[in-house]
Structures are given as structure tokens and as C-alpha cells.
Write a structure and sequence with these properties.
Strand order of the largest sheet: 1-7-6-2-5-3-4
CATH superfamily: Glycerol-3-phosphate (1)-acyltransferase
Order of helices and strands: HHHEEHEHEHEHEEH
Strand content: 5-15%
CATH topology: Glycerol-3-phosphate (1)-acyltransferase
Helix content: 40-55%
Length: 245
């Protein structure tokens, strides 16, 4: 049995039970006060990144901190792994993340997602659901929160051809705030739908914001032109010695 498998086994058996126990035992507190819900979310996130670092050897490097939003903004993040859904809450503490509606069905984690103000996307609701998402997102922006969306809608393997959905352009036009693109290489270390966790230096890079006011088509071209080359560069520059295969 390889050391990679054993470290991955230990990492997984720590992350998920700790999260379940923490969320479940604290239900009365975070149902009562939203600040407790945020504390639980951030605590689980810190524990997860700590386990990944000390057990699986996954180090985090954040680049472009000067581009991280200080006020309400739209964040458009590359999506390769579950890792970025954890890290984003720690880097942007009061972010409103857009997730599939089915995520809210998993209790009590789904209840926690509702309590901290995640935004639900009903993929079967078509235009009506999208309009509701626009209204909910604008309400959060008016409260000063950042809204985070994964433009590809689902996790994509590292290096896979980009498939950007037009919903991100609709949000950009509707919210009328800067959009901060985010590139990363997380799929090399926490691959989607895989058990193994590979050691190395995981990089998340915040890119220069796109000012509001572009047309839908121009925005989509600019967003992809910023995220994809940056993500490809991060994948290319990940040193082989840092990825334990």
C-alpha cells in the first residue's frame, strides 16, 4: 500500500467526519445566529486546509492579493476541484457563493449553506430561475457582499477545453460591479471525483478586475482571455517535484 494512498486515506477520513461533527453539534447555535454559521464555516475551512497541508502536503500560495475585492464585486473563479469552494470562504470571508440548488438538500450542511447566505441556482428552472438568481445576487451586492460564480458551472479537469456559460455575463451586466477573475491549478492536487490527494504547491491567483460596462460578448471574451492563459501558466509552472504521483 503506497504512502500516497495512506496519506489520502487519512486526509479524507479527517476532513469529512470533522466537518459533519462540527456542523451537526453546532446546529442550535448557528440556526440562532448567522455569525455562528459563519464561524462554523470558517472553522471547517481552516481545519480542511490545515489537514491538506500537514497530512497531504498541499501548500497554498495566493497571488494577486492586490486584486482581491475590498467592496462588493463579482468573482468569476476557475473550477477544477472542491478545494476552491473551501478556500474562497477563508479569503473572502463574507462571500455569497452561487451553488446548485440540490446542494441545499444535503442536511445539515445544506441548512448551513442557506444560513450563511449561499445563492441557489436551479438549473431546471430556466429563465424564471435565472431572474430569481439575478434578484438575489443584486440584493447581496447592495449589502456589500461579493458574489462568487464558477463560469463553467461544474468542475473541469486541468487543461480541459473551457466551457463558459452565459449566465456569468448576465450577472456582470445586471450587478454593474467590477468582476475579479480567478485562475488556479487545484485540479492537480485535489482532482475531481478522485480519492487521492497529491502533494505540491497549489496556487490561486486573483487577476486584475474587469470594469463594469462591457457588452455581454466583449465581457465573455475578456473573461476567458484572462482566466484561461493564467490557469494554463499555473499548470505548466507546477514543478514535477512538487506533485507526488
Amino acid at each position: 500500500m503506497s504512502m500516497l494512498f495512506l496519506r489520502s486515506l487519512l486526509s479524507n477520513t479527517l476532513i469529512y467526519p470533522i466537518g459533519f461533527i462540527l456542523v451537526t453539534l453546532s446546529v442550535p447555535f448557528w440556526v440562532w445566529r448567522r455569525s455562528w454559521a459563519l464561524w462554523v464555516t470558517h472553522s471547517w475551512g481552516r481545519a480542511t486546509l490545515g489537514i491538506l497541508r500537514h497530512v497531504s502536503g498541499i501548500e497554498l500560495e495566493v497571488r494577486g492579493r492586490e486584486h482581491m475585492p475590498r467592496a462588493a464585486a463579482l468573482i468569476a473563479c476557475k473550477h477544477q476541484s472542491s478545494w476552491e469552494t473551501v478556500a474562497m470562504f477563508l479569503l473572502i470571508p463574507n462571500v455569497a457563493m452561487i451553488v446548485r440548488q440540490t446542494f441545499f438538500y444535503f442536511t445539515p450542511v445544506g441548512w448551513l449553506a442557506w444560513r450563511i447566505g449561499m445563492l441557489r441556482l436551479n438549473r431546471t428552472g430556466h429563465a424564471k430561475a435565472l431572474r430569481q438568481l439575478m434578484r438575489d445576487s443584486r440584493a447581496e451586492v447592495r449589502r456589500g457582499r461579493c458574489v462568487c460564480i464558477f463560469p463553467e458551472g461544474t468542475r473541469r479537469p486541468p487543461g480541459a477545453p473551457a466551457i463558459y456559460h452565459s449566465g456569468v455575463a448576465g450577472l456582470y451586466r445586471h450587478l454593474d460591479v467590477p468582476c475579479v477573475p480567478v485562475a488556479l491549478n487545484s485540479g492537480l492536487f485535489w482532482p475531481r471525483r478522485q480519492f487521492l490527494r497529491y502533494s505540491g504547491r497549489l496556487v490561486m491567483e486573483f487577476l486584475p478586475p474587469i470594469a463594469p460596462g462591457l457588452s455581454r460578448a466583449a465581457f465573455m471574451r475578456e473573461l476567458e482571455a484572462r482566466i484561461e492563459p493564467a490557469s494554463a501558466r499555473l499548470l505548466k509552472n507546477a514543478r514535477r517535484g512538487e506533485i507526488s504521483r
